[in-house]
Amino acid sequence: MRLRSFLVMFAGVVLAAPAFAQGLFDDAEARRRIERLRQQVEANQRALDERFARIESAATDRNAILELSSQITAVRDDIARLRGQVEVLQHQADMAEKRQKDLYLDIDTRLRRLEEAREAAGAQTPGAVAQPAEPTEAENKAYTAALDQFKLGNYALAVSAMQGFLLTYPNSALAPNAQYWIGMAHSGQRDYKSAIAAQRKLLSQWPDSPKAPDALLSIASAQETMGDRRAAQQTLEELIQKYPDSSSAASAKQRLAILQKR
Prior knowledge:
Layout: H1 2-16, H2 27-124, H3 137-151, H4 155-168, H5 175-188, H6 192-205, H7 211-225, H8 229-242, H9 247-261
């Protein structure tokens, strides 16, 4: 504003200077020249006002653009940070799922070896109770296909496949195993109520199966995950009492000690 006033005053003085020599002209001519000078000054004033208005408008627009650009940059930074957090969480979930699958595979392998050892020992012991017939090739293929779905993490398909196996081969030596993996597949889907019901069915129909102790251990895990620590402790105590010589009983003792310390 000071610059504008100075320019106006300067223009007025410069342009009005010839009027001081009005002695060279008559009064009418002097008045005409003064009027023309006044109009020129006013025109210059309007031009300056318009120029300053354009400058101020442009400055305002630049500030708005700069502010908007700053906001866009901040949003992009937030999105990049969130994407990084999502990637970290996804990696952790993938690693946890892999560890769970590896654990299930290890458990199943060790239990199958124990079952084979027990069957071999029973066959060599005189007067031993007759063992169930060896699974046929068709039974083994159906059971393996169902178990593969579980190993791949396709828990819903694993449940359907194991249930289909039980319908087709209800008297198979692998029937308790199939029922056990139905319960474990429900646990994989975090459907712990269905998991407990499936393992209870195993205990009801095949109480003498090598899978029975593992079923109780699975039930205790589901109960603990659901927050029912008292029920989990009771199930672990039941496992230790009914199957004291099983490998699951040893695991139950360790977990029971941990629960009691909490």
